[in-house]
Amino acid sequence: MSQTNAAADTAAPGTPFAEIRSGNLGVRLAMDAAEIDAGQALRYRVFYQELGARADADTTQSQRDKDIYDTVADHLLVVDHALGEGPESVVGVYRLIQREGAHQVGHFYSSDEYDIGRIEALPGNVLELGRSCVDNGYRNRSVMQLMWRGIAAYVFQHKIELMFGCASLPGIDPDALAPELTYLYYNHLAPAAIRPRALPHRYVEMRRLQRDEIDARAALTRLPPLIKGYLRLGGFVGDGAVIDPQFNTTDVAVVVQTDLVTDKYHKHYERQRGETAD
Fold it and tell me: Which of 67, 110, 120, 149 is spaced 20 to 30 Å from 257 by Cα?
């Protein structure tokens, strides 16, 4: 890692962090409307064309996955410089919404599925994560690690104390997902003080099997990589799943206290800085 890239990992609070590089790949915030549009186009390709989400007429015509929350969010991008230096380089996206942005549109996106009142009542800065996807040719561990380094830089920059959002399992049959949902409930349920609960009219019971009926290792293996990433960071899930017919998914609420995120981030930076100094 070069001196330049190490410095990029330590953006001062209050300023956009510089791009963090790993070979041809980089992670940073979108710089203009064209890059945000490229992220929305990638989301459309992944969610609608690949994963079978149901598009309305406007979405089909625009071939963009977009909504009002995009106007108040920061858009984290993974870019491949081998593809160019503009919107064509976007290969991964993550939407980041802080409390101020949510207030501008009235509420967080997650509140359409979950009661997040306990999270909203917290005094510190909170961050909603959502709309994460990566181009099919880039779905590997190194890209996910790079994306998490970008999130960690953002969290440090804005002094975020807790992250939350909705994470998706494929399909809308909760019985087909019974091992995964039951495993999550019994092993990773959030503490009551920060636990989201699915809204009553959308609540789907996660305890679909008895605890002793679960092969925990197999259930963990079957979880989507994004959810496993949250769990590796000490993340929790809320009470109740939610069926999202539009996106052909079963959603769970996730909550991550950022202590471990920033700790791993700083340890990585200090290690890389030591190697550079040798």
Answer: 67
Tell me how far apart the alpha carbons of residues 55 and 36 are, in angstroms, rounded to a whole number: 19
Residue closest to 168 by CA, chosen among 112, 94, 252: 252
pTM of the full structure = 0.88
| Beta pairing partners, 96 | 74, 129
Distance in angstroms (rounded) separating the CA atoms of residues 202 and 219: 24
Residue with token string 């970008």: 150
Which residue, chain included where needed, has tokens 């561990």? 141
CA angle 230, 233, 29 (to 5 degrees): 70
Q: Which tens digit of pLDDT belongs to each residue from 49-89?
A: 999 999 999 999 999 999 999 999 999 999 999 999 989 99
Mean pLDDT in residue range 190-202: 97
CA dist., res. 33 & res. 16, Å (int): 16
Query: Distances from the Cα of 255 to the Cαs of 59, 188, 190, in angstroms?
Result: 30, 10, 7
For residues 131 and 93, the answer to whether their CB atoms sit within 8 Å is yes
- The token pair at 162 is 């807790």
What angle is formed at CA 196 by the lines to CA 125 and CA 219, rounded to 5 degrees?
Answer: 115
Beta bridge partners of 115: 197
What domains are there in the chain, each with its CATH number? 3-277 (3.40.630.30)
Contact 247, 168 (CB under 8 A): yes
Short-list 241, 239, 234, CA closest to 196: 239
